[in-house]
Amino acid sequence: MTDDRLNDPALLDAVIRIAGAAGDVIMAVYATDFAVRGKSDASPVTEADERAEAVITQGLRSLAPGVTIVAEEAVAGGDQPEVGRWFWLVDPLDGTKEFINRNGEFTVNIALVRDGEPVLGVVLAPAIGRLFAGVKGRGAFAVEGTLRSAIRCRAVPPEGLTVVASRSHGDAAALDAFLAGRKVALTSNAGSSLKLCLVAAGEADLYPRLGRTMEWDIAAGHAVLSAAGGRVDMLDGAALRYGKPGFDNPHFAATGLAAC
User: Fold this and answer.
1) Half-sphere exposure of 99 (CA within 13 A, CB side)
2) What is the model's pTM?
């Protein structure tokens, strides 16, 4: 992978097609009476997770031979790849609990990381027909149906922050403590990496995550948010980086324009 190829629109178009193919597989399983199993960490997994990951990894290997792929289900199965300057982070079905609950708030996440920073991201929510994509230095956009529109983080409105929190992994007391002293107009819940994309699209201003996440959970949304003018920082203010041992994330806050 090279910087020139990152800036080639054909690369992002190809990743969008791969995400779409994975979304089709997921929706085919979604229409059935699928089984739910538990992984070693007690998190749920379905046939949709595994089939979508197979589609994505095959597509990415063809698209960028030799670039390491770090994918959730492969890592859960014991694959601990070494990452270099460039690598992919893949969550084939982010929000498996939302998938199981059939609320539509699950996503396909594909990110390309360069030097620890997510620089290309695609987030597809196949059940609700929304796609978000972005590349560092080239901006971000959303697609709904046939309508494609540029997205950008907004300045915080005078009435205060719109805060988005996790639907399935919330800690109300920790969130209240984090928000103390901030002017908050509205707090809402959403599943999966959609929270990062809502900040990117100017539909929210702040997403604090005060619980465990893995790098593949958020890298694609982080890339979209960065391309839209926002950022993701650890609670000490340092930028969140990728390729960490174990691929665990610390607590973080995703912010739009001047939302800290």
Assistant:
1) 30
2) 0.94
